[in-house]
Amino acid sequence: MRAPLRTVLPAILVLALAASACGDSSPTDSDDLERTTSVEVRDSFFSPSANLVDQGAEVTWNWVNTSLGHNIIWVDADLENAGTRQFGSHTVTMPDEPGEYRYYCSLHGSPTSGMRGRVIVE
Ligand SMILES: [Cu+2]
């Protein structure tokens, strides 16, 4: 009662292809790194999601065409958070300390998923 090999093999191939497709899609996960000091706050993501800036740079978040409220919460840096709003801008002077500073919107994300971003000071 064993299934003939010619019917089992295609099923194995399909499973292998599906697995590799999943593996390829996760690293790109909307992580775009740009050398710029401005960030667009949109429904519901930050663009770019990663900024490369100089030490002490002033970075500005601009709410663009948002119909939802969004905020900015720094994960582990003593920087000024932005309260929930639908328009306007928020400027933060980044530290002189090189490193990666992570933030997120607490309404649509968390430090590890969803609406979040990071500023890399070099
Ligand atoms: Cu949000």
Question: Any overview of this molecule?
Answer:
The chain has 122 residues and is an alpha/beta fold. The chain has a single domain, classed as Immunoglobulin-like, CATH 2.60.40. Helices cover 17% and strands 45% of the residues. The chain is built from one helix and ten strands, in the order αββββββββββ. The chain has one helix spanning 5-25; strands at 33-34, 38-42, 45-47, 50-53, 58-63, 70-74, 82-85, 89-93, 99-110, 113-121. The relative contact order is 0.19. Copper (II) ion (CU) is lined by residues 44, 70, 105, 107-108, 115.
User: CATH class, please?
Assistant: Mainly Beta
CATH architecture assignment name: Sandwich
Total separate domains: 1
**Range of strand content:** over 45%
Mind summarizing the main beta sheet? 6 strands, mixed
Q: The CATH topology, please? A: Immunoglobulin-like
* CATH homologous superfamily descriptor: Cupredoxins -  blue copper proteins
SS summary, helix count: 1
CA(first)-CA(last) distance: 64 Å
- The count of DSSP E runs of length 2 or more, i.e. the number of strands, is 10
CA-atom Rg in angstroms: 20 Å
Uncertain runs: 11-29
Order of helices and strands: HEEEEEEEEEE
Q: Please tell me what the overall shape is.
A: globular
Q: Which hetero compounds are present in the coordinates?
A: copper (II) ion
